[in-house]
Design the sequence.
DNA sequence: GCATAATAGGACCGATCGGTCCTAATTTCA
DNA sequence: TGAAATTAGGACCGATCGGTCCTATTATGC
């Protein structure tokens, strides 16, 4: 992959994340990426749509390398990793001052019904995300009580996080995401064996009862 | 309110819900609403943007009258109402064959960062929604254990539902929403007093542990 | 040293868009 | 019965858009 092309995709990712794919013109992408003009842009990309797909790939690749990497940390207990992962997402929303939501959620919200190609790729992205969460939850299955389905729990976690980022973006209030992060940890904690809500047990998933 | 204007807004709501506000042209809105042409459209609305706001108001008004009305049913126990409310959302996703997501989530995802007017109104909409959930949860507070914050729990429920509708829309799988609905009920059930996950207790919030 | 790639900086195209303005017919209302 | 509202059915406008095509210079690689 040419480093210049990657730099262009990164610059485009930032702008598209901020304004949405349709509300970002090729001219604006050219300026953001420091290209000289249309020829330059179309030298690297067949079309705006192709860039859109590359942006999605790039964002997921970074998310997998950075965000989801926490889930694969062998030196940390599985549920501690999940807690850290949630903390990372909460911290990111705070860093961004509650703006821009989730790159995947944004694209999904904008294009899922009007662009089948994007919808399918986003479907895969979310399934891969949920799949990695499921893998982690399976590692912790001995800590779970009877009847916990890692796959279902994983989907719920993705939904809650995406919904949290959407609400945070609309309300412009990072505290919203912080609260949802805490509650989500509390939710996961309710799946543990021998858990008594009235007893305070130290650990990231033993919060003060979805407070 | 003129009945014809209302009918136009309803037709527009369906199309905008399906394609998104920006991907729906005034010409398409004219056809969908059975208007004769641009003059006709601009007779009723100052601009496309004005129609957009009316659509949002209309959708929230209907949601309040139908969806959220369940939460205010005096003859049903508070938590039973919540369960019914969740069931309604799950059923609606199934009815729509997992398409179109949430009208508010869709608009939020598309316009929250690019149209401050819509973002503000959507912020109010979500706060009103969460506020009504909070009111209901306060009615059930005697059933909750120590340390449950209705406001926070309400926000979490909204986030999980919105996230669930987004995921359902992207995956085109209504089972996704059904699972999230069940898990959400299970989660609310964990806030109850004297609840033992290993004991099966009849009731909408005593599911087989987030199965 | 030369061919190729990258960069430069657009003009221009057809298409689409929101909105204005037009003539005209029909319906409604007082 | 006549004025006003609604309906009819656009043409047209300026703006924006994605993309093609153009001349030209500079940088790179062999």
Sequence:
């Amino acid at each position: 992959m040419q480093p210049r092309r990657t730099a262009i995709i990164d610059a485009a990712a930032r702008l598209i994340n901020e304004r949405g794919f349709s509300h970002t013109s090729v001219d604006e992408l050219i300026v953001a990426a420091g290209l000289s003009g249309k020829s330059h842009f179309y030298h690297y990309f067949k079309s705006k749509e192709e860039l859109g797909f590359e942006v999605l790939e790039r964002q997921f690749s970074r998310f997998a390398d950075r965000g989801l990497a926490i889930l694969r940390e062998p030196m940390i207990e599985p549920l501690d990793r999940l807690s850290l992962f949630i903390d990372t997402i909460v911290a990111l929303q705070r860093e961004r001052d509650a703006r821009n939501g989730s790159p995947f959620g944004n694209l999904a919200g904008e294009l899922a019904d009007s662009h089948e190609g994007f919808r399918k790729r986003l479907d895969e992205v979310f399934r891969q995300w949920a799949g990695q969460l499921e893998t982690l939850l399976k590692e912790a299955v001995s800590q779970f009580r009877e009847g916990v389905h890692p796959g279902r729990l994983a989907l719920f976690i993705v939904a809650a996080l995406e919904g949290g980022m959407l609400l945070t973006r609309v309300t412009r209030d990072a505290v919203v995401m912080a609260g949802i992060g805490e509650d989500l940890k509390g939710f996961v904690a309710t799946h543990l064996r021998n858990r008594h809500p009235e007893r305070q047990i130290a650990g990231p998933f033993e919060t003060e009862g979805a407070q």
